[in-house]
Structure to design on (190 residues):
């Protein structure tokens, strides 16, 4: 039973690489899976239900397969690589009526990755955790925002190279924020 559901999800991703979300039909799925419509409706109520299942399963897989973290770019690289593998599919979802579910799961995975990285950094370095939630939120919004910008631009630039530049630009900022320090490169107006 689970194998059939996962096969339909895999086929959904394959078809999504070929055509927009709004053009995918139940018939497309059942034809590729060589099952009947009743089998589809046994597992999913409609295409949006299949899409949500597929996005959630993808999110869970990325999180499960990438729970070892190191530097910030090591945390970002797995999700970026997975997004780039399915670039066309994610553009189709992002430009569809199912965009909200995608953004919800993107926020979930971004939050998880950042939280895991911050927790690891705190445990390894003994940094205080008072400012943790602020730092997590800022980096989660940054990561999700970068991905959404990339999708807005039709995935037209190298997201991984751009993320590497951002990680270099932000280097040390998270540690300073966790320590409650500021980087004052301009005069204070106290």
């Amino acid at each position: 039973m689970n194998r059939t559901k996962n096969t339909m999800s895999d086929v959904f991703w394959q078809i999504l690489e070929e055509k927009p979300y709004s053009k995918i039909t139940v018939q497309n799925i059942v034809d590729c899976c060589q099952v009947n419509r009743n089998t589809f409706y046994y597992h999913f109520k409609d295409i949006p239900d299949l899409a949500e299942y597929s996005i959630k399963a993808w999110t869970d897989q990325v999180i499960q397969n990438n729970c070892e973290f190191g530097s910030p770019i090591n945390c970002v690289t797995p999700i970026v690589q997975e997004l780039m593998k399915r670039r066309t599919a994610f553009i189709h979802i992002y430009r569809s009526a199912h965009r909200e579910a995608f953004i919800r799961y993107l926020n979930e995975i971004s939050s998880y990755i950042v939280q895991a990285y911050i927790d690891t950094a705190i445990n390894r370095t003994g940094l205080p955790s008072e400012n943790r939630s602020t730092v997590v939120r800022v980096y989660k919004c940054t990561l999700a925002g970068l991905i959404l910008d990339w999708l807005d631009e039709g995935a037209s630039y190298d997201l991984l190279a751009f993320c590497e530049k951002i990680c270099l630009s932000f280097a040390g900022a998270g540690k300073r924020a966790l320590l409650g320090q500021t980087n004052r490169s301009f005069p204070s107006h106290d």
In short: DSSP finds ten helices and no strands in the chain. Residues 182-190 have pLDDT under 50 and may be disordered. Residues 99-125 form the longest helix (27 residues).
